[in-house]
Amino acid sequence: MLRGAREREGRSPAARWLQLATVAADGTPRVRTLVFRGWAEASVLDLLSDGRSAKAAELRQQPAVELCWLLPRARCQFRLRGQRLVLPADVEQQQRQRHWQSLKPSGRALWGWPAPGAALAAAEEFPTELSDEVPLPEPFELLRIDLEQVELLELRDHPHQRRRWCRSNEWSEKRLNP
Ligand SMILES: Cc1cc2nc3c(=O)[nH]c(=O)nc-3n(C[C@H](O)[C@H](O)[C@H](O)COP(=O)(O)O)c2cc1C
Q1: Number of domains in the chain
Q2: What residue numbers bound the domain in which 45 lies?
Q3: Would the pTM of this model clear 0.70, i.e. be above it?
Q4: Which tens digits make up the pLDDT trace of 106-129?
């Protein structure tokens, strides 16, 4: 259903944008937009981030996340709950390398920038591209999210449709009030 909703968005880059919510060390929520980078398994998805960012520290303390994915053409919202997976070191390295190679030089550039969220300093450089020859940077972080629950809200019909699937329930569908 998610694939179908994404297809309705056509070639819009926004069809790959989702919001990642985490919990900060003081227990308060944080949310930001990330690009969906593909499915590792049927209910495991990949995101890419910077290991120097606030979210990286938050996830080390609290690996539970919620993702919110709005597909406006299909008029639906997916809410995905899960955990950031800790991968065996060799798998993580191989998967980071695979994602790094799949990025365009302009897409890689961000990982050549100074630490995200740090104070802007006059002398620092922000490259526009990192070529294929640039080795995998240390801060290039794979966030692999193992999904435990999916909720879909569809606004197309009256009344709105809301359903939930839980892994603990063999992904069987439960219909809810919208
Ligand atoms: C459309 C869009 C796509 C983004 N994609 C990513 C992404 O794939 N990975 C990422 O780390 N940050 C991405 N960002 C930046 C994040 O939203 C955020 O500003 C940054 O990761 C720092 O977040 P943090 O301080 O909470 O760690 C994107 C921002 C926008 C507006």
Answers
A1: 1
A2: 2-90+140-176
A3: yes
A4: 999 999 999 999 999 988 999 999
